[in-house]
Amino acid sequence: MKFAVKKGWSNGRARSGVLQLGSCPFPIQTPALLLTTRKGLPPFISPDLLTSSLPSPDSHLLQFSPLHFLEGISPKTISNIGGLHQMLSLHQHIFAAVPRDSIIALPEHDSTNKYGASFQTPGCRLLIKPAEYVELVSSMEPDFWVTLADEVPAWVSNKRNRTSVDRTLRWLDDCLSLNKESTTIFGSIVGGSSIEERHRCAQEVAQRNVSGYWIGGFGLGESMDEQAALLTAVTDDLPEDMPRHVSGLGLPEEVLQGVAAGIDLFDSTYVYHLTLGGFALTFPLERNKGENADYQLSDLGGDDMKINLKATVYRKDTSPIVESCNCFTCQNHTKAYLNHLFNVHEMLAQTLLEIHNTHHYLGFFCSIRKAIEEGKFEQFRRNFVESRRDRLFAAASSA
Amino acid sequence: MELCICTFFLSNQVLGRFNRARAAQLTLPHYLCQTPLFMPVGTQGTIKGLTKNQLEEIGCQIILGNTYHLALRPTSELIDELGGLHKFMNWPRALLTDSGGFQMVSLLHLADITEKGVTFQSPVDGKPMLLTPEESIQIQNRIGADIIMALDDVVRTTITGPRIEEAMYRTLRWIDRSIAAHKRPNEQNLFGIVQGGLDPVLRDICVRGLVERNLPGYAIGGLAGGEDKDSFWRVVAQCTAALPEDKPRYVMGVGYPLDIVVCSALGADMYDCVYPTRTARFGTALVPEGVLKLKHQAMANDIRPIDPMCECMVCKNYTRAYIHCLVTKDAMGSQLLSYHNLYYMMKLSRDLHSSIVEGRFPEFVCKFLQTMFPKGDVPEWVCNAMEVAGIDISSCCHEMKV
């Protein structure tokens, strides 16, 4: 794996970088979004559509949880097939293994003990020990993998939080020593909502021989306000030239905060949950790109960022989700059709919407990168937050 | 009365024959089709999880939409207002809608058939409603499909007695009402449906009655409902023998690949069935040997593709083991299986068409049967049907080997 931060970027910690990993022939520009998958494929976008309908190479970063595979296919069979890339027939995609996944494998901090991390899956509760985890990962041969962590939410006791850091460090060392094939490993950093513990963990992990850092413990119910300080506490102690990956920062504002703190890679279930709910992202990707004409206060749950395609107001709307969007869905289908598909519970609704939402969100990351490279990230971030406020205000006063 | 200019130039465009089997070019307003062909069922204006591009890639030519479901949601008026179903779905090829009658009778608890039409309780608010032949045609006119079906009085073949005769004559009376109500004969082709149960006399009367009306095409209805296979093929054979050569013959609700091959040998051209997509959702794949149940534990370690000979995206890229771990747990599993199963059906359609055109239909049929019945245990009804179709399948049948 090769990662380099591009010199000469803007003020603050935000950085633009380039990531090159074995499988993918194209370099990936960061900050970048990893797409959420279930067993390696997006929840609703079939593999042929993944390659044909989403931008390349932006859409080549895929996050998955090895634990998904425990029900239904053995590590040995995955090995026999030839690993994840072969099994999914996505040879030019980058697979990142992260044990926790907010849909299928939720960390169960109460059940985690000194032997292993506990996860709640739809089928059962699993206790995964470092050795088992490493075995699972090695059969899959992902491009990089994150060490087993004891993630805890923000409200646990200080004692529990400290234990989670101790355990995570111990498991990190276990994973490193079990790593026979010298694959690419990202060291896990936890610490909950304690700045001290975050520092402690980050400093320790920074001393290990890893290729990058995964920052856990976010997207587990903490407030957005706490996030910034905790993230910078971590990135303060990490070497500049190594990639930083965080899971669980989903909302655009959270992503912007993460970028401002020096994070390079993001994965979250934001797009997945939006899609399930029938919400389509519509926020303008560039400032002054025109008003978001579809925003209507009466739109059930929609706001200036997104619309609710299930709302009856779209029943006869023959316009695409976003006029200027060139994703497959906007180029081929109307809000009226999507409204119908959602109302009759047809799977195609989610396929089409996941394509649009993913496309839109990748576009957001593209705008972020552009802003950093032009030295205007802070301004971009401010504008984004402020124009949201303006749109909300305008809509509220015209209502 | 001038009925329609959907032309099925069998005499000009017939591309091949083998005894009763035909391969032809069916020219519809939205697409040039090749028959025999299978039509996937896109009940509510979509085929389970597949995009229009994927459907085109697979080779779908005509998709069936269910009038009953579409009239409920989003309503035929809305579809009409937005420019018709083709535009609504953005489907550039052909569409066919059924009359709505069958769903009503099979889905609704209190559906009752009278001379006026089908009376039923609205599933939305329980109010009594009536679907007449006129109303069915009006709804279908609004939806705008290339082929529309006349409301028929459909009776299950497992029923016996005077009801069948009543239904057959009513179907004939209703076809006249449908023809009169049809407002778009230049854009939409009205097919009549032959009823009459398993009674050859009734079937004959119905065929003659419909043929007198000189419709653009004819469907053979009332089958695929639990009758024994021996009766099934005989009805198809009788009807295809009596229906005009130059018009398409559509066997409704068929079906299994084996049934399609037999009916094609007997002279039918078009088929529809929910089977391929429905069985995909239960984890079953269609293969030349029959079916493959991906849910079975045996699949968990099987690293072969579903069908090594299949060229579809799923078979070229995925193993049975991977699909096994998806089915019934992740929506992606049924998406991939639907894709494969539809590909299989469209490939079957293409193979039927090309083997007839290229003069190797009997060889195709034999190979098909040998693969499906490697022990030579071809069912008797198939042997009987093939005899009538004039196709020598002795090489496939164990008992018939001398």
UniProtKB/TrEMBL annotation, chain A:
Binding positions for Zn(2+) per the UniProt entry: C325, C327, C330, H356
Location within or outside the cell: Cytoplasm
Cofactor(s) the protein needs: Zn(2+)
Cofactor annotation remark: Binds 1 zinc ion per subunit.
GO cellular component: cytoplasm
Sorted UniProt keywords: Cytoplasm, Metal-binding, tRNA processing, Zinc
Stretches assigned to the tRNA-guanine(15) transglycosylase-like domain: 13-388
Any one Gene Ontology molecular-function term assigned to this protein's record: metal ion binding
Pfam families attached to this UniProt entry: TGT (PF01702)
BP GO terms, sorted: tRNA modification
Top-level taxon in the UniProt lineage: Eukaryota
Matches recorded under InterPro entries: QTRTD1 (IPR028592), Queuine_tRNA-ribosyltrfase (IPR050852), TGT-like_sf (IPR036511), tRNA_ribo_trans-like (IPR002616)
Assembly and binders: Heterodimer of a catalytic subunit and an accessory subunit.
Stated family: Belongs to the queuine tRNA-ribosyltransferase family. QTRT2 subfamily.
Described purpose of this protein according to its UniProt entry: Non-catalytic subunit of the queuine tRNA-ribosyltransferase (TGT) that catalyzes the base-exchange of a guanine (G) residue with queuine (Q) at position 34 (anticodon wobble position) in tRNAs with GU(N) anticodons (tRNA-Asp, -Asn, -His and -Tyr), resulting in the hypermodified nucleoside queuosine (7-(((4,5-cis-dihydroxy-2-cyclopenten-1-yl)amino)methyl)-7-deazaguanosine).
Protein name: Queuine tRNA-ribosyltransferase accessory subunit 2
Organism (species): Coffea canephora (Robusta coffee)
Automatic annotation (TrEMBL), chain B:
Compartment list: Cytoplasm
GO function terms (MF aspect): metal ion binding; tRNA-guanosine(34) queuine transglycosylase activity
Region (RNA binding): 253-259, 277-281
Membrane-spanning parts: none
Binding-site list for Zn(2+): C310, C312, C315, H340
Function noted in UniProt: Catalytic subunit of the queuine tRNA-ribosyltransferase (TGT) that catalyzes the base-exchange of a guanine (G) residue with queuine (Q) at position 34 (anticodon wobble position) in tRNAs with GU(N) anticodons (tRNA-Asp, -Asn, -His and -Tyr), resulting in the hypermodified nucleoside queuosine (7-(((4,5-cis-dihydroxy-2-cyclopenten-1-yl)amino)methyl)-7-deazaguanosine). Catalysis occurs through a double-displacement mechanism. The nucleophile active site attacks the C1' of nucleotide 34 to detach the guanine base from the RNA, forming a covalent enzyme-RNA intermediate.
Organism for this UniProt entry: Coffea canephora (Robusta coffee)
Family from the record: Belongs to the queuine tRNA-ribosyltransferase family.
Chain residues that bind substrate: D98, S99, G100, G101, F102, D152, Q195, G222
Catalytic site positions: D98 (proton acceptor), D272 (nucleophile)
Subunit comment: Heterodimer of a catalytic subunit and an accessory subunit.
Catalytic activity entry: guanosine(34) in tRNA + queuine = queuosine(34) in tRNA + guanine
tRNA-guanine(15) transglycosylase-like domain mapped to chain residues: 20-372
Entry-linked InterPro entries: TGT, TGT-like_sf, tRNA_ribo_trans-like
One Gene Ontology cellular component annotation held by this UniProt entry: cytosol
Keywords, ordered alphabetically: Cytoplasm, Glycosyltransferase, Metal-binding, Transferase, tRNA processing, Zinc
GO biological process, any: tRNA modification
Pfam family, one: TGT
Identification of the protein by name: Queuine tRNA-ribosyltransferase catalytic subunit 1
Keyword Glycosyltransferase: yes
Names of required cofactors: Zn(2+)
Class in the EC hierarchy, top level: transferase
